[in-house]
Amino acid sequence: VRWYAQYARDFLAIKCPETLDDLPEFDKTCMNVFSNHTEIIVYIGLGVHDLRMELGERYDIVQPEIDRVLNHFFMARIGMRFLMQHYLDSRENKEGFSGIIQEQMNP
User: CB–CB of 85/35 below 8 Å?
Assistant: First the structure.
């Protein structure tokens, strides 16, 4: 939670981009947040494992609430990472893509 609070403070500390000259600082902040999020999954997994070991059979009582919180957290994380990756990739103007979306995709 502290990491995410710090990332929010990082975005609040920079100027909202209004011109092309404002984009490098915003891009840098996006890249920092995007690249620093990779280890969070491991830490959450270790935390859940430790909690399961500590509570033993009592874990079953709290598991629905933990699952609810983790589902909410990971859905928000996926959405945030999707939007940041899409924004960052859209800055590269890659042929055949709009950000991370392939224009001529055939599922």
Answer: no
